[in-house]
Structures are given as structure tokens and as C-alpha cells.
Amino acid sequence: MNKVAVIGSGNVGATTVQRLAELNIADIVMVDIVEGLPQGKALDILQAAPLMGYDVDVKGTNDYADIAGSDVVVITAGIARKPGMSRDDLLATNIKITQQICASIEQYAPDAIIMTVTNPLDIITYAALRCTQFDRNKVFGMSGLLDSSRFASFIAKELNCSVKDVCAMVLGGHGDSMVPLPEYSTVSGVPLSKLMDEATIERIVNRTINAGAEIVAYMKSGSAFYAPSAAIATMVESILNDTKRIVPASAFLNGEYGQHDICLGVPVKLGKNGVEEIIELELTKQEMEALQRSADAVREGISKIRS
Ligand SMILES: NC(=O)C1=CN([C@@H]2O[C@H](COP(=O)(O)OP(=O)(O)OC[C@H]3O[C@@H](n4cnc5c(N)ncnc54)[C@H](O)[C@@H]3O)[C@@H](O)[C@H]2O)C=CC1
Ligand SMILES: O=C([O-])CC(=O)C(=O)O
Description:
Blueprint lengths: L2 E5 L3 H13 L3 E5 L5 H10 L2 H4 L5 E4 L10 E4 L15 H18 L4 E4 L4 H12 L6 E3 L2 H16 L6 E2 L2 E2 L7 E2 L5 E2 L2 E2 L6 H12 L1 H9 L6 H15 L4 E10 L5 E12 L2 E5 L6 H22 L1
Parallel strand pairs: 1-2, 1-4, 2-3, 4-5, 5-6
Antiparallel strand pairs: 7-10, 8-9, 10-11, 12-13, 13-14
The structure holds 1,4-dihydronicotinamide adenine dinucleotide and oxaloacetate ion.
The site of 1,4-dihydronicotinamide adenine dinucleotide (NAI) has 36 residues, from helix 1 and helix 4.
């Protein structure tokens, strides 16, 4: 049986465990620093198994030794933002949490693939890669698939069509400078530009960029977790089943898209070896400039963790 460890048993972590259990693809260990929290949530999820028809094991623990043998470790531990905060405001707290967790992963699950979720996503992913010194295919972040799913849901709503026919793409950092790509977003193969006027596309693009903040503003404390956990589960499934789905994720770039020494959202092929390929899309001059601005914003954050 495959094994997945989910670090952090808060909103994103626990919902991820629920979704993974319902996919029935791996035994799951959920970890948190709060005593009793992962144990209680794990029991609750297990007790739904007879009703939902899954038969994987779900264990809650405060002991990192229990992550030993994990194929994938998902890091969701850390603070979430409140209204008025940017994701970058979480860096000082979440970087320390991430560094501690990475040391435990190195110790107990040195062969695991790491998927970061904690914000600010691209900087945390870079830190996880540097801390563990794992190969770059084995450390990447969940971001673009969530942003693309949001973009797709807004397109479907606007066109009053099935979301099943929508394919959307968002590149760049998981922040205000993310780069939704209308040119690579289609409905049953028809480019968005043939289905909507420019003003409508711009409105949907801006809503996508602000989608996380829109939810934070509604919720007052805490941020999104249903769509984020759906994106995480989709990516974990592609790895464990070696499906080789092509999805945007924050990956370490070594010359791709003209970028070096940075983690940034780009389309990747996800299989049993993690990021098996980085796909380089042909971008217009404007799109390349937007990606460069996004990379500059991520680099500013990375420079803070270096100093
Ligand atoms: N990449 C993305 O697209 C998304 C990222 N996020 C980020 O995910 C993170 C978690 O969000 P939520 O689950 O909503 O927060 P939450 O507050 O509900 O849960 C966080 C959990 O982490 C635990 N934790 C803190 N330090 C820990 C440590 N050292 N070891 C183990 N557990 C520890 C806390 O006890 C808490 O249970 C936030 O940083 C948030 O910004 C959230 C949604 C989407
Ligand atoms: O908005 C946040 O802080 C959480 C997040 O990254 C998202 O929902 O995209």
C-alpha cells in the first residue's frame, strides 16, 4: 500500500486527508504539533470509511517517526492569512515551521517526494528544497493547479457551460503577480478570445488573481481549503498512480523560462518520480514580461530567507 504523510492537521491538512482517504489510494498519517488534534481527526475520518467505502488506514500522531516509509509528504503546517494580509506576511513564521519539518522529513522519510502547500508558497518550496537538498524533481509546491481550477470555474460560470469542458492555465508565483494565460485557456478546444470580449477576460483574470483574498475577506479568519485540498489530492493521485498529468506547479527552474535558482509556477508532468518534466510553453512578449515580474516578486522573498 502507498503511504502519504500530511503535515499540519488544520483546515487544508484535514480536508486533504479526507479527500485522499476517499480516493482510497494510500494509507495516511496526519501530523500536527497540537496534541490530540490529528489523533481525533484521524479517528473521525476512519469512522466514515464504512459509509464512504474506503479501506485505507488513517493515523493521527504528534511523532514524526510515524512518517517513515511515506511515498509523498504534503506540508500544510503553518499560519494562514487574515483579511488585509498578503501571503508574504506569513513568511517569518512559516519559514521556521517549514525548516523544522524538513529536518524531520530528512531524518524519517529521506526517500519521500515533498509537496509544499504552506504560504508564501514559492518561497516555502524553495526553502524546502534548500533545507533537504533533495533532487529538484522531488520537491515542488501546489499552487497553479488551484489557481487554474479557480480560473476554469469562473470561465464556466461566465459562459454558463459545463466546467468539464474548460481547460485553464495559470503560471507564475502564487501571489498577486500570478499570470493567468487566456491564450492557453480553452473551452472544448475553442480559445477564450473567441468566446468572450477582452473586458470580460480581464475581469475574470483579475478575479482569479484575487480569488484567495476574496475568500479570506469572506471568512474573516483563515483561508480557502476545499479547492486547495482538491488540487493537492489530484496531484498526489497523479504521483502515486503514475498518471503523468500535466499541471502547473511551483518547480525549481534551472534555465527553463529563462529563470535560474527559483521556484515558480510552470506546467509540469507529475508521475511516480515527482516532477518528471517541465513543459516550456511558447509565451508572447507580454506574457514573458508578466512572468518575469512574478519571478522578481518571488526572488525578493527568497532574498529575505537568505539574509
Ligand atoms: N498553496 C496554496 O495554494 C494554499 C496554501 N495555503 C496555506 O496552507 C497553510 C495552512 O492553512 P490552513 O490549513 O488553513 O491553516 P490552519 O491554521 O487551519 O492549520 C495549520 C495547522 O498547522 C499546524 N502546525 C503549526 N506548526 C506546526 C508544526 N511545526 N508541525 C506540525 N503542524 C504544525 C497547526 O497546529 C494547525 O493545525 C497556510 O500557510 C495557508 O496560507 C492555504 C490554501 C491554499
Ligand atoms: O489566500 C490564501 O492565503 C490561501 C491561498 O493561498 C489560496 O487560497 O490561494
